[in-house]
Amino acid sequence: MIKIATRLLLIASLVLPFAACKKQEAAPTNAAEAALVAPAKDDDAAWRTYLQEVVSRNMGNITNSPFLYYLPPEADPEFQPKYERSLEQAKASISRGIVGGNMLAFGSSASARMADLVIASFEGVPADTMKGVRVLFIGDAADGERVKAAVTPAGVDYVFVEAK
């Protein structure tokens, strides 16, 4: 009787983890299929959550934690100082060099200003020095094209997600 109980417990301990894995694998697929909708322009907290979800869905084969650059809504009274600090941080990181296997993600409801930040950050980056680096821009379509023109010469894998 004890042998049977022991065997049943052993079998259960081996089967349950596999069953749990199957359920976990199914969940991300369903979440990935759900369409993301950009929040209202002035909803700072919702934008942060939205951007995190967009970044996680666009990691691809990137395994390192992404460098995420975010600007608050332009209605924020501290917008300009926050813009300047983010620009300084992005320029410093990019000038030090980003190696392949990393992601730079840029997003904001202030799409035009974020595009300006990306373009300024990539000024002077030598051609083809950022191969294997993914640059994700989340914003308006017109700004996405401006960003693409600025970052493509560096050799990055450019991904654009329209915030709509």
SSE layout and pairings?
Elements: H1 2-33, H2 44-57, E1 67-71, H3 79-96, E2 103-108, H4 111-122, E3 134-139, H5 141-151, E4 157-162
Parallel strand pairs: 1-2, 2-3, 3-4
Helix pairs in contact: 3-4, 4-5
Summarize the structure.
The protein has 164 residues and is α/β, with parallel strands linked by helices. The protein has helices at residues 2-33, 44-57, 79-96, 111-122, 141-151, and strands spanning 67-71, 103-108, 134-139, 157-162.
Structure description:
The chain has helices at about 1-35, 45-55, 80-95, 110-120, 140-150; strands spanning about 65-70, 105-110, 135-140, 155-160. A four-stranded parallel β-sheet has the order 1-2-3-4, sandwiched between helices. It is built from five helices and four strands, in the order ααβαβαβαβ. The chain has about 160 residues and is an alpha/beta fold.
Annotation keywords:
about 160 residues, 4 strands, about 55% helix
Backbone shape: globular
Largest sheet: 4 strands, parallel
- Which range does the strand content fall in? 5-15%
H/E element string? Answer: HHEHEHEHE
Q: How many distinct helices?
A: 5
Unreliable runs: 3-28
